[in-house]
Write a structure and sequence with these properties.
4 strands, binds 4-nitrophenyl phosphate, single chain, globular, alpha/beta, Rossmann fold
Length: 156
Amino acid sequence: MKKILFVCLGNICRSPLAEAIFKKKLLEHGLNDQIMADSAGTANYHVGENPDPRTVEIAAKHNVPVNHKGQQFKKSHTDEYDYLLAMDQSNYGNMVAEMGEDSEKLMLMRDFDPYGKGEDVPDPWYGGMNGFENVYQILNRSLDDFIVFLKKKHDL
Ligand code: 4NP
């Protein structure tokens, strides 16, 4: 079983949406018994909370079921997961600080985006629904390429 952790700041917008889209794709690819996913935030502001209502709305618009409670990223996740995908450079830096060192497991979500490799998934928290739609589109195409990468790398 390969284990993936998606990480943003608050764990109520970007990373729970990435987790939800990815889980739907795993089902579609028949990979749900070989790969599992969860999400976390580097901040503790929203621990135990449901995803932001705008996250739920954009997911529903695209027929993606969302089911997550906020949790904070911690050092032990590094051992527990095979891939840690940060949504932006700031999250990445916060994760390195928590882990005490960089790790080969740590990547940026948009390392897998064919349009904007290595860029940040923009934080949609202060904006409106168009920001959430933009995040959905970025995540949807990046996660397609991430699945191609996982299949190839692990012969799935
Ligand atoms: P996320 O968005 O990191 O994509 O979940 C945010 C959610 C909450 C806050 C910031 C960003 N906040 O400051 O509470």
